[in-house]
Amino acid sequence: MEPINIVKSVYAPLDRKNVDTDQIISKEFLKRIERTGFGQFVFYHWRFNENGQPNEDFVLNKPAYSGAEILVAQDNFGCGSSREHAPWAILDYGFRVVIAPSFADIFHNNCFKNGILPIRLTEAECDELLAKGIEQAQEIEVNLEAQTVTTGYGKTYTFNIDPYYKKMLLNGWDEISLTFQYEDHIKAYEEKRLVFE
Amino acid sequence: MGKNIIEKIWEQHVVYREEGKPDLLYIDLHLIHEVTSPQAFEGLRLAGRQVRRTDLCFATMDHNVPTKNLPTINDPIAKKQITTLADNAKEFGIQLADIGHPDQGIVHVIGPELGLTQPGKTIVCGDSHTSTHGAFGALAFGIGTSEVEHVMSTQTLWQTKPPTMEIRVNGQLGVGVAAKDIILAIIAKWGIGVGTGHIVEYTGEAIRALSMEERMTVCNMSVEAGAKAGLISPDEKTVEFLRGRRFAPQKQFDEAAEYWLSLTSDADCAYDVVLEIDAAEIEPIVTWGTNPAMGVGVSKTVPTKTDYDNEADRGALEKALQYMDLKEGQKITDIEIQHVFIGSCTNSRISDLRTAAEIVRGQKLAPGVQGIVVPGSWSTKRAAEEEGLHQIFLDAGFEWRESGCSACLGMNEDVIPSGERCASTSNRNFEGRQGAGARTHLVSPAMAAAAAIHGRFVDVREFAKQQA
Ligand code: SF4
């Protein structure tokens, strides 16, 4: 996994609540058996009209937001199905950071495992980011080490993050190899584990 | 102070604990299906890793298996996923209930059926409705593919202990009101975010009165309430359900049962949050919108903007009604449907099929309505056929299919056409869930069956009276 620390980029304001994983990556695109290549399908039914033409009104299709590595949305981002294709698609499209007032649990966990930084800001802070970003595309700087989001309009927001996940993201660690270091504990547990025949 | 069942199971499974880190939890059962596993196997192969405990894994095919004309699989990509799982199971030595195998079925239906699901176990699957297994007093939750790979390699997961929530359902359900209505009512009352970040235990008289299959329906939709998991403390019903099942303990069954019952939440335990609802106030629910909280009692009407006190909710209402092609204030019983889907891990078990068949018996599908019944597993299908339920559905004009997820998510050919409306016993009514542009109304099996006969929603409580 690629380490994350500072991400400085224009952000895409997605002014919606309850963005579910079906919307992030629609089920007709789940049939690949690889992890990559999902970015082209992200938010497909919002990005494209029924005739397959790009929907010019959708934020990701506006040139001002192209190349955004940060996505800002409303409450309960990533709810619905547990498909990890959703974070894969988001990452593959080019996002490294998602900011929202709250995330669905599974999605939130999946972000860390795939090198995406999910940031919880307050609703007021997200509303402000969304309003400013919709008014005019602008850059922000996310600093994981410092746990800050510095805006171009003179405000700096701070966020909390589990120290364990922070370390993982900062170092780009693969969780499985970390867990292998606990093999002795796992073995010991298995020896005393309750099993009924 | 005593402990609740969530705390008891959690503590039992901690392999390693350190300040400032999530706990390393042991996983007792890992269920695997074709959609969320290929990338995990790919990861193992790339890293040269093995599956640590093949004896604690069980795989099946459900999400995109065809439910008719087997064994032909027309969709080449679905076929690829299916053969990939078969190859992976073989390569890594994992038990598989393949297409055509007598144990095949929706993963959350076969786990309990085979007795793999047991109280006190930690159970994971790369599927959000893994919460279903909580009905047995297991700590069961959905995981993503990276976690699937992590469990395969280490049989553990790093997990931060979530806060606990009790949802107490007091009193008794009215006649014609189903387990599905309990959970839809809970979500309608408190919203799809109510359980976010929590593990929920369902308690109270109305929950204790439910059969095991009904409990599965309630726990299944915990995730629609935002919860990580939902469970119900085991009791004698749990024990009796498991007795004699193939993967349940045999020689030591009594010891196991004693242990299971000891997991039940202590009378003096506490939860971080407690919510209460009165079963008597619950009526059969129909969802009118595009998330599972957008539901009302069948005797009611679609909400109007004046029902909401903020712009965001009013906006969500407008968007949902536009997608659903419904009007504010429209009567639920005036909504006409063209499709009925009886199936999914929420409601495709034998008792669901019996309930629906009882309503359908001797009747015909309303003109213009298409109905499919998709049993949750082969074994459910066989049991239903032994009772003659399939004939009741066939006589009424339903199609009787092979088991799988089917129109619950429309990954196979079972999709609802754009702009058409489906009364569905599944668990999700998101935009496009059952097919691009399809409009889903979530209901109980009885409500779906009654809608099939009438071509629109009817109050099953009335229907039952008329038939009597
Ligand atoms: S029946 Fe539906 S909800 Fe259940 S596992 Fe299959 S797709 Fe998921």
Automatic annotation (TrEMBL), chain A:
<keyword id="KW-0413">Isomerase</keyword>
<dbReference type="GO" id="GO:0009316">
    <property type="term" value="C:3-isopropylmalate dehydratase complex"/>
</dbReference>
<comment type="similarity">
    <text>Belongs to the LeuD family. LeuD type 1 subfamily.</text>
</comment>
<protein>
    <recommendedName>
        <fullName>3-isopropylmalate dehydratase small subunit</fullName>
        <ecNumber>4.2.1.33</ecNumber>
    </recommendedName>
</protein>
<dbReference type="InterPro" id="IPR004431">
    <property type="entry name" value="3-IsopropMal_deHydase_ssu"/>
</dbReference>
<dbReference type="InterPro" id="IPR000573">
    <property type="entry name" value="AconitaseA/IPMdHydase_ssu_swvl"/>
</dbReference>
<comment type="subunit">
    <text>Heterodimer of LeuC and LeuD.</text>
</comment>
<dbReference type="GO" id="GO:0009098">
    <property type="term" value="P:L-leucine biosynthetic process"/>
</dbReference>
<keyword id="KW-0456">Lyase</keyword>
<dbReference type="GO" id="GO:0003861">
    <property type="term" value="F:3-isopropylmalate dehydratase activity"/>
</dbReference>
<dbReference type="Pfam" id="PF00694">
    <property type="entry name" value="Aconitase_C"/>
</dbReference>
<dbReference type="InterPro" id="IPR015928">
    <property type="entry name" value="Aconitase/3IPM_dehydase_swvl"/>
</dbReference>
<dbReference type="InterPro" id="IPR033940">
    <property type="entry name" value="IPMI_Swivel"/>
</dbReference>
<comment type="pathway">
    <text>Amino-acid biosynthesis; L-leucine biosynthesis; L-leucine from 3-methyl-2-oxobutanoate: step 2/4.</text>
</comment>
<comment type="function">
    <text>Catalyzes the isomerization between 2-isopropylmalate and 3-isopropylmalate, via the formation of 2-isopropylmaleate.</text>
</comment>
<dbReference type="GO" id="GO:0016853">
    <property type="term" value="F:isomerase activity"/>
</dbReference>
<dbReference type="InterPro" id="IPR050075">
    <property type="entry name" value="LeuD"/>
</dbReference>
<keyword id="KW-0028">Amino-acid biosynthesis</keyword>
<keyword id="KW-0432">Leucine biosynthesis</keyword>
<feature type="domain" description="Aconitase A/isopropylmalate dehydratase small subunit swivel">
    <location>
        <begin position="3"/>
        <end position="123"/>
    </location>
</feature>
<keyword id="KW-0100">Branched-chain amino acid biosynthesis</keyword>
From TrEMBL, chain B:
<dbReference type="GO" id="GO:0003994">
    <property type="term" value="F:aconitate hydratase activity"/>
</dbReference>
<feature type="domain" description="Aconitase/3-isopropylmalate dehydratase large subunit alpha/beta/alpha">
    <location>
        <begin position="7"/>
        <end position="455"/>
    </location>
</feature>
<dbReference type="InterPro" id="IPR004430">
    <property type="entry name" value="3-IsopropMal_deHydase_lsu"/>
</dbReference>
<dbReference type="Pfam" id="PF00330">
    <property type="entry name" value="Aconitase"/>
</dbReference>
<comment type="subunit">
    <text>Heterodimer of LeuC and LeuD.</text>
</comment>
<comment type="function">
    <text>Catalyzes the isomerization between 2-isopropylmalate and 3-isopropylmalate, via the formation of 2-isopropylmaleate.</text>
</comment>
<keyword id="KW-0479">Metal-binding</keyword>
<dbReference type="InterPro" id="IPR015931">
    <property type="entry name" value="Acnase/IPM_dHydase_lsu_aba_1/3"/>
</dbReference>
<keyword id="KW-0411">Iron-sulfur</keyword>
<keyword id="KW-0432">Leucine biosynthesis</keyword>
<keyword id="KW-0413">Isomerase</keyword>
<feature type="binding site">
    <location>
        <position position="408"/>
    </location>
    <ligand>
        <name>[4Fe-4S] cluster</name>
    </ligand>
</feature>
<dbReference type="GO" id="GO:0003861">
    <property type="term" value="F:3-isopropylmalate dehydratase activity"/>
</dbReference>
<keyword id="KW-0100">Branched-chain amino acid biosynthesis</keyword>
<feature type="binding site">
    <location>
        <position position="345"/>
    </location>
    <ligand>
        <name>[4Fe-4S] cluster</name>
    </ligand>
</feature>
<dbReference type="InterPro" id="IPR001030">
    <property type="entry name" value="Acoase/IPM_deHydtase_lsu_aba"/>
</dbReference>
<protein>
    <recommendedName>
        <fullName>3-isopropylmalate dehydratase large subunit</fullName>
        <ecNumber>4.2.1.33</ecNumber>
    </recommendedName>
</protein>
<feature type="binding site">
    <location>
        <position position="405"/>
    </location>
    <ligand>
        <name>[4Fe-4S] cluster</name>
    </ligand>
</feature>
<dbReference type="GO" id="GO:0046872">
    <property type="term" value="F:metal ion binding"/>
</dbReference>
<dbReference type="GO" id="GO:0009098">
    <property type="term" value="P:L-leucine biosynthetic process"/>
</dbReference>
<keyword id="KW-0028">Amino-acid biosynthesis</keyword>
<comment type="similarity">
    <text>Belongs to the aconitase/IPM isomerase family. LeuC type 1 subfamily.</text>
</comment>
